[in-house]
Amino acid sequence: MVTVHWQTDKWVDVQLGYLERHVDAPYRVFAALNGIDDPEVWRRFHFAADLSGSHGEKLNELAGIVAEQSDPTDILVFLDGDAFPVADLTPWIVDTLAEIPLVAVRRDENLGDRQPHPSFCATTVGFWHEIGGDWRGEPWTNAMGREVVDAGGKLLHALEDRGVEWRPLLRTNTRNPHPLWFGIYGHRIYHHGAGFQAARAERVDWAERYRQKPDSGRPLRPTVESPSLGTLRARYATGELHLVDLRPRHLAEVGRAARKTLKLRREHRYFTRQLSSVRGRRLQEMNDRVFAELSTDPSFYRQFDTDVPE
């Protein structure tokens, strides 16, 4: 098992407890524990480290460490820190991987996200190595025709380029107090969805915003080709661009970067207002309430999916 916990250990007891209940086979947990300094927490894992980089890079590094200590036929499971099984993984996971090389959550409900999602993914160490498994982001087009970059993008393209069929675990909630959070996938995996951040706007929450402001979202992401003022400032700071090298085209670039920065600030204000709104506060309250329930009631998930097997 490979997992990432960030800035809090509140999910460690929860995740390890559900794994113990629902994995009837020997297993080891390898974890990135960023911002968690308690040595007692670290000792609860087979391997733990405070890793740098993006979420995908941390998962990749952990997978490499697992591979060094495993056989190619060993099962490799990725879990978000706020995700865990609510039904038995064994022998289901063994039987599934005997039929197909990779199974993972796919969040169709998040405006048609197409990629395997790291909240849960299972394959073998050998297959992960064979396809050059990589959790870093790479763009795909979602259901609204927008380009999205998120963890799992490179993995999606690696599977598609090789014509590999994989099995998506889709949301099976019979009740949805939120369109993305509190998800049950395949009647088997729970993903809280907002475990390590304050209640926030998800991609699916921005659907109406995309309709109102076609230039919001991905087109505003600063890039080398389309920088913000901050990106340009960083280039100056590193010496990549010097004042003596400035040309008229650079002034035009500064103008475009200024317009992008203004739009980014507009979106940030919109996002901040959403968090502080009545709806935002209610989401945070609901997030906290569900966490309290799942921490004490092992059958809490039945409020979301009545068809999870006993």
Can you walk me through this structure?
The protein folds into two domains: 2-197 and 296-303, Spore Coat Polysaccharide Biosynthesis Protein SpsA, Chain A (Alpha-Beta Complex); 206-276, no CATH class. It has helices spanning 12-22, 39-42, 55-68, 92-99, 125-130, 153-161, 207-212, 229-237, 248-276, 278-296, and strands at residues 2-6, 30-34, 47-49, 75-80, 83-85, 103-105, 117-124, 140-141, 147-148, 167-169, 183-185, 189-191. It has 310 residues and is α/β, with parallel strands linked by helices. Helix content is 37%, strand content 15%. Strands 3-2-1-4-7-6-10 form a seven-stranded mixed sheet. Strands 5-12-11 form a three-stranded antiparallel sheet. The radius of gyration is 21 Å and the shape is globular.
